Amino acid sequence: MLSLLGYDLALWLLKVNFLLSFLPSEKFNLVISMDYGLGIPGDGRCLFRSVVHGACLREGKPSPSESRQKELADELRAKVADEFIRRRADTEWFLEGDFDTYVIQMRQPHIWGGEPELLMASHVLQTPITVSMWDKSSGNLKIIAEYGQEYGKENPIRVLYHGYGHYDALKSAINSAESKLHKKR
After folding, report:
1. In whole angstroms, how far apart are CA 159 and each of 27, 41, 88, 177?
2. Which among 8, 35, 43, 100 is annotated as catalytic?
């Protein structure tokens, strides 16, 4: 039985594929299998939701409900902001703008997270985090960033970056599964 979120994502993918089918024949449609991404909502918390969801998968725990996922994401966000403060001397130079303003804004649930937050999340959780993205030329997932390697390299939390500000949790290992991005001609 598909969850409501999974069903909505499946409908969205069908609509996108249908619309892409009207492109000229020299173009191709992309069919993305739901075997990898979990359909994390794009509500400003997607990075944090993806990381906490990935942490549950990594630990063999069941996927959290959407309300629990939101709660865990907000808790992780607060800990990440605190970690920035603890590591101020190491992080202040690579954050945009005023450090204090950045941290205050990052505590807000609607503010998007990015690479600095992934780095701090790896420290908070003391766990490696791997970010992957679809490689359009090969049609495969490609690791684009790794954080927290000092905590080991085995069994990282896996996150999928869509390239337009959205993160999703990956439920499959990249190197052990065939890519599910297929090209239809």
Report:
1. 29, 14, 25, 15
2. 43
The question of whether 123 is a catalytic residue gets the answer no
Q: 56 an active-site residue?
A: no
Kindly report, residue by residue over 77-94, the tens digit of the pLDDT.
999 999 999 999 999 999
> Which secondary-structure segment (H or E) carries 181?
strand 181-184
What letter would DSSP give residue 62?
A: P
> pTM for the full model?
0.73
Domains of the chain plus CATH, in order, are 4-184 (3.90.70.80)
* Distance (Å, whole) CA 54 – CA 39: 12
Q: What is the pLDDT of residues 173-184, one digit of tens each?
A: 544 333 333 333
- pLDDT of 39: 78
57 contacts 171 by C-beta, under 8 angstroms: yes
Catalytic residue among 74, 82, 135, 166: 166
35 labelled catalytic: no
Q: Is 165 left (phi over 0), alpha (psi -120 to 50) or beta?
A: left
Joined together, the tokens standing for residue 75 give 């808790």
